[in-house]
């Protein structure tokens, strides 16, 4: 429980700091809103379903990625400006980090739900369904970005973050898919261990 209290404190610290003189307040609001909604959902459902500290840690990392992108806008995050200039890239690619996490973290969340609620009985389709769900989430987020852009016009351009890249939407979904697959390949065993250690002792 102490870890969760620390994670909650770090969440609010990150949120508040990101909101101090951001590049654009409207863009900041749009970028951090998913983190705030996610926190509210996790808090509301906490008594009915508690994730592992392992999963909460990666959720917090994802939130900080959103906070950083919201503060600077995804097109102007300083370290990736340096990468852009050093490697002669045509755009700031920080948004790809965000979309990678948009697949990685949901894969961990969905995987834990599937395991502990025994949602998928046929293990042959287990990983495929997780990746498919993550891709669906990514596609839905692209629809949201599209809707915001249509409703707000130029005000939503920074939120959309295409930076003139015609294949931005498709590459965003690709990075989310890669993120989900990487989670399943490299972190499944550690995730299983975290689930066993935390909930077998309760």
From TrEMBL:
Classification via InterPro entries: YjdF, YjdF-like
Keywords per UniProt: Membrane, Transmembrane, Transmembrane helix
Transmembrane intervals: 29-46, 53-74, 125-144
Pfam families (alphabetical): DUF2238 (PF09997)
Protein name: Putative membrane protein
The keyword Membrane belongs to this UniProt entry's keyword annotation: yes
Source organism of the structure: Flavobacterium cheniae
